[in-house]
Design a protein that fits this description.
Length: 364
């Protein structure tokens, strides 16, 4: 019910109250209200006051929501001047925690808060390529393993000789994928789970873990043993896994040859013939019923076996994708971070060859 209807209803109640004062007496010229008139007046006035208060509360809430969603003029500060211009290298990974998105750039970890509209940079000279939350901590991987501590990245002592490509929490373990194997870090120490394999993606279902590799296939880990999974019609089609995600009992596998979805019993394939902009899948976000899929030639969505391109993102080379509520976040291969809110797409981080923008003009 809108505000005008609320006010009309309140007016009607007040009219009933007035009618009660007049109509409940047998004597038209009576100066003193009867007990029935008093009761009618009290009830009607109380109801009317409640409606008016509800209208005011609704108006305040509407105004507050409008204020929250309205564009905010923010002048880029000195700290963020470098962030407003991307370096041209991919935003390889990002994670949404609460109301903030943490995105990996060449300058470090860029943090945008969508509610407070604050912005900050956790500066780092390290190469960063993976980010994950585990056991109440935020871990970042690249040329080493780091944990976010306030405004810095603190190095974690772990015996890994090659670069980290992916991170995932699983039960009591932090799984660390590298160019030369899969490692586990826990209170029981560090251990090698898969040695010699180039790990490209990891996702936990809660009960087990799926591990993708670059050239060596897809594996399922139950906490004890690994089993390689493949399609009988083409055992090599899952060799090159580029992205993984899991939600609602469905596993989503991105490859160089399309998107594959496993419901626990059968596999379904989505490729260019089905509407995919490219067979090369770069990233997946399955946190909602509508799955967001990034490719080298655009971002698309998958819902109920239907593929739909996302307007104004259908030509973007996406390196990473994520969701914040109804907003879609896309880290591009050339270093931009874009946010799509409804039909509008605007940059949070803009490419170096364009002018500096208001980073929070995107937050409508």
């Amino acid at each position: 019910m809108n505000i005008k209807r609320h006010l009309s209803f309140a007016a009607a109640v007040l009219m009933i109250a007035a009618a009660g004062l007049i109509g409940c007496s047998d004597q038209a010229d009576s100066q003193q209200p009867t007990p029935m008139q008093k009761l009618t007046h009290t009830i009607s006035a109380t109801v009317a006051e409640s409606v008016i208060q509800a209208v005011k509360a609704n108006a305040d809430t509407t105004a507050a929501e409008t204020d929250t969603l309205a564009p905010m003029e923010v002048k880029p500060n000195a700290e963020f001047a470098m962030v407003n211009k991307a370096t041209g290298n991919p935003v390889e990974d990002m994670i949404v925690i609460g109301t903030s998105v943490f995105a990996l750039t060449d300058e470090g970890v860029v943090v945008f808060d969508f509610v407070s509209r604050s912005q900050r940079l956790i500066a780092s000279e390290h190469r960063l390529s993976a980010i994950a939350s585990h056991a109440g901590k935020l871990y970042v991987g690249g040329d080493g393993l780091y944990v976010v501590e306030d405004s810095t990245l603190e190095a974690v002592d772990i015996d890994i000789a090659t670069d980290i490509t992916s991170l995932e929490g699983f039960s009591f373990r932090l799984l660390v994928g590298t160019e030369n194997g899969l490692y586990s870090r826990s209170i029981f120490g560090d251990e090698v789970l898969l040695e010699g394999l180039p790990i490209s993606a990891i996702v936990s279902t809660g009960d087990d873990v799926w591990v993708g590799t670059e050239g060596s296939g897809l594996y399922q880990f139950d906490g004890v043993d690994f089993k390689q999974r493949y399609l009988s019609r083409d055992p090599s089609i899952l060799d090159h896994v580029t992205a993984l995600d899991y939600q609602y009992s469905h596993l989503y596998v991105g490859t160089l040859d399309g998107l594959f979805v496993f419901d626990g019993g059968r596999w379904e394939e989505y490729n260019t013939a089905d509407g995919m902009p490219s067979p090369t899948i770069t990233s997946i976000d399955a946190s909602d019923w509508v799955v967001i899929v990034g490719t080298e030639y655009g971002v698309t969505s998958l819902f109920n076996r239907n593929i739909m391109p996302l307007g104004k993102l259908d030509a973007v080379n996406a390196a990473s994708v994520a969701r914040y509520g109804k907003k879609i976040l896309v880290g591009t291969a050339d270093g931009e971070l874009l946010v799509k809110a409804g039909p509008v797409v605007r940059p949070l981080i803009r490419n170096a060859d364009t002018s500096t923008v208001n980073v929070f003009s995107a937050l409508k």
